[in-house]
Input
Amino acid sequence: MKIKQEAQERHVLTIMVDNEAGILAKIAGLFTARGYNIDSLTVADITDGHDVSRITIVTHGPPAIIDQIHAQLERLVPVHKVTDLTEVGPYVERELALIKVSGKGENRVEALRLADVFRAKVVDTTTSSFIFELTGSPDKIDSFVGLMKELGLVEVGRTGIVGMIRGASAA
Amino acid sequence: MKTERSGAEILVESLVAKGVEFVFGYPGGAVLPIYDALFGDDRIRHILVRHEAGAAHAAEGYARATGKPGVVLVTSGPGATNAVTGIADAFMDSIPMVVITGQVPTALIGSDAFQEADTIGITRHCTKHNYLVKDPSQLAGIIDEAFRIATEGRPGPVVIDIPKDVQIAQAAWSQVAPQQRNRYNPQVEAPADDIAQAVEMIAAAKAPILYTGGGVINSGPEATRLLRELQKLTGAPVTSTLMGLGAFPADDPAWLGMLGMHGTYESNMAMNRSDLIVCVGARFDDRVTGRLDAFAPNSKKIHIDIDRASINKTVPVDLPLIGDCAKVLAQIIEGWLETGRTKADLTEWNARVDGWKARQSLAYPRRKAGEIMPQFAIERLYALTKDKDPVISTEVGQHQMWAAQYFHFMKPNKWLTSGGLGTMGYGLPAAIGAQLGNPDSLVIDIAGDASIQMNIQELGTATQYRLPVKVFILNNEWMGMVRQWQQLTYESRYSNSYSDSLPDFVKLAEAYGWKGIRIEDESQLDAGIQAMIDHDGPVIVDCLVAKEANCFPMIPSGAAHTDMILYGDEVAGTMDDEAKALV
Output
């Protein structure tokens, strides 16, 4: 017997939750307990009173499972609203990365030149290294990191994405 | 009037305010302040169990038999972890329950203190919601919300973890109900358009079937009444899951019996051949559907469920109706009557159903003279107790399925069983809880010789509170369902399924102050059952039954509804890996 694989879709979900103790564990744990995937997860409180947090989760799975994830999340008492950005229409997704590159001579100049092309900011520098700050879609960050590999990439830190629906209305 | 009260006192006052009659619990270090607050308070009756799992199952039994939430009180660490099985059981079967757990003092949390366990972490995915209370001033509001969450929407267990210092610390408290956070508001009614579509679909069906579940019972007596009304209006036959037995009377001609793995031939065939399934408060569990790609292939499906996450979870449906069973059934009936629908001509469909009934799938062979077939024991138990309208609980295994097949239920809240989690050891404590909630009823735990030993210590609880609970053991000296699967799937290699070193159940009963009765021969069966009924006190009946009887009909793992094994069929001794890998 072999384990079968199903076709997968990538979805971006935003979740508004009560900012109470254990809520992150509850949401992350729901994914592990039910065998769902988390590609990235970001969370921060977004209200003046610090009582509501916005979570962005990138997940993948067959369409039926994505629908289940949506329903299971909504079933949690502290969850106010779940929006599947991928489902509701055009949306923006952005991620921030810090990328450390070390090198001298031609590589260093090339790294700086590419950073300029990608509109990355230099946030730290020594005579032999840079830390670049880059914001953009995950693809853009992937390709920048790919280029830096040839030029002395030391380490990468990424935030995971936050997403928002395009247009005037809220998710 | 506002006064200062300790957290423990606020808890007790809040439980009284919620109308709690019984608390099922077991004391320990981290709940001593609560036990002190309960001391001498006669507004709440504390039922001292013998093991915390017993407390949780007793609360479940009480809840299932009365429709009211069950309340559990246990200490930190092992008290909480012992209760987890019952909490998970209540979660799977949607039983309203509020569990109060003690916790080590706030300052010691995370320090691996004595009897510390991360109760909130452990119960996170087997509760509807849980709380760690850090301030006694929040307690009244939390308890209020906890009861709402436990009982509204799809019911379930809620855990409130209270550190010992929070039980002792003082906070302002007033008689006035606390300000409520209004964040839990499940949808209870379906949109009118969807109702109109449902009425249209039901009216157009040539081969409809009502597939009902525990949700009908959770919704309350009104849902049961409306289900009967809808059946009368439409003429559709009715089948039910294990959890839904009693929602529709088993003596009605439209009743097909239970469906699923050990369901009747007619119910499974009718599901498979139907052109419309109206699922009312059931969830297309794997024990019901069998092989998914062969499940009711030509039917449209309407799914009434209060839990949106149950929709399309395993079986895609054509029309979801999210809401409370009673409300949605009332909407459908109203829509049906308003549009002047009449019963469709189901003559042909009924004739096919009668054809499947004629297979008599619950027929079983008699063996050698005097030997008691377990099915027959249940039939006699039913015949001799039905006039008393008994409450039946069960453990888990063959005896549970036989009870579901051969004991017949006319009313809701009479059938208490662990369906989703399948917890052996559920039946005895559940019977205790049910008896407390129904002091004048005949309450019988139909048990197996293996299951009954899982919470046998609760015999002492029944003795202490003078509860006349009856335990009817179908003793075949096997973990019968395990043995049956090993026979059918593993070429009769009976690995560790023999109940060796069984106690003498009659002597055990007597040791606990119960009456013990042994039935060894079919000729003693009726007299033994009658003696059990007549005894004013708790009784264990050790009924020795045919040792290797199998529970049929059976849809083997990985098979379709149409591939049922009936008594007398040739049974192959093995299965392929795909089938073995299914639960």
